[in-house]
Specification:
By secondary structure, the protein is of the alpha+beta class. It has two domains: 5-141 and 305-330, Periplasmic binding protein-like II (D-Maltodextrin-Binding Protein, domain 2, 3-Layer(aba) Sandwich); 145-303 and 373-415, D-Maltodextrin-Binding Protein, domain 2. It has 18 helices and 15 strands. The chain has helices at 5-11, 47-60, 75-86, 101-106, 124-129, 152-156, 167-179, 196-208, 223-226, 228-234, 236-239, 252-260, 274-279, 316-329, 332-340, 359-366, 381-396, 402-415; strands at 21-25, 37-43, 64-70, 93-96, 131-132, 135-136, 142-145, 147-151, 185-186, 266-269, 284-287, 300-304, 307-310, 344-345, 371-372. The strands form five sheets. It has a four-stranded mixed sheet. It has a four-stranded mixed sheet with strand order 9-10-8-11. The chain has a three-stranded mixed sheet with strand order 1-3-2. It is globular and about 75 Å long. The two termini are 18 Å apart. Residues 1-24 form the signal peptide. Keywords: Cell membrane, Lipoprotein, Membrane, Palmitate, Signal. It holds the Pfam family SBP_bac_1.
Amino acid sequence: MKLNKTLKKAAVAAMAGAMVVAMGACGGGNGTNADKTKLTFLSWNNEQTMKPYLDEFEKENPDIEVDFSYSPPTPEYIQTLQTRLVGNQAPDVFIITSENKADLITNQYVRDLTDEPFMKNISQANKDFVSRDGKVYGMSVSSWASGIIYNKDLLAKVGAKGVPDNWDDFLKLCAKLKKAGVTPFLETVADGPSRIPDAFLGSQFEQDKVDVTTLVDKRPQTPGTDQKEAVKAWMRLYDEDLVTRDTVGISGDDMKTQFINGQVAMICTGPWDLPSFSESSLEWGMAPMPVLSKGQVNYAQGSPSPAYAIYSKLKGDKLKAAQKFLTFMDGEWALQKSTENGDAITVDGFKSKVKDEYKTVYEENVRTGHYFLVMNFYAKPDVLTTVRQSETQQLVQGAVSVDQWAKAIDDKMASVK
């Protein structure tokens, strides 16, 4: 088997340098282990998070012992996993996600799960996340989606009760707020590109009936061109002087702090920030992201959770144990535990209890699969993330045009083999 450059680099990495914290059998494991099937699992959730799942799994499957190890996400986990794969020490179950799925699928390290019974109720969007050529290589059971967080009192100053559902009206609201002396909107471009163009592109792909699972194989890769119109529309915030160009130096924490302090009417973020808003004295709400054009299906920027994968060479009792483990992680007990931990479950037939403010986004975006994240569907997501970040900062600062932004991204993607 011919290995790609990334895997070759991993092969020469010393095993001692791979940060794997072996926990052994994390479950109860009382009595002799001689007659048990040992299942190795490399997790990027730590022992504290995973131990309840492993204890319950071993309780329900006393003939299986889980040999648990941990490596933190994301670059370190991928390095560790690749080192183990090329060193013939592959874990039986491991994580497949945006940054490693192309390598894992191309090099045939992951088992095709398409027809497995435990995949029956997995959301189509979660399947698409780890699919190629109509085959699904991982099981993802939850997702997240972003939205517009708004200060009810500040919006009320201009007679608004909520966030408009389309971009033109959203910009009009921003203009009204600014005229009234209220900072209308803030986002961070220091931590990453704006979330808004991803949402716009998701709606556009839906309208154009684009199969997003084919984008990774498209040659040449043209994520810049594909998102150019969405970015032009988003840049109206800056071109119409509705948002400060200082966002290039504003972090996500800075943005959140300004919102909590009542200094800005609206921000764009995801569910991870909601507890902070709930702990504040603000009257706040969360709305779906506005669509670019009226009549389009609403999309958010969002993504499925990393998926569980099974090593392709497993067979016999080892394979059966791995299949049982994924069946368990897709079952009622594990899904309930995950929703208690704050995950928004997307499995058909199971509904997470989420914060009241998040319910609309959960129902309209998360559960329907109406969310999109650019880096999930193009080749070399690490390269794409880096070039989009640098070029977007240049764009916001006025150093390049949208056409130049798009060309720089496409040229960079074309230069990477």
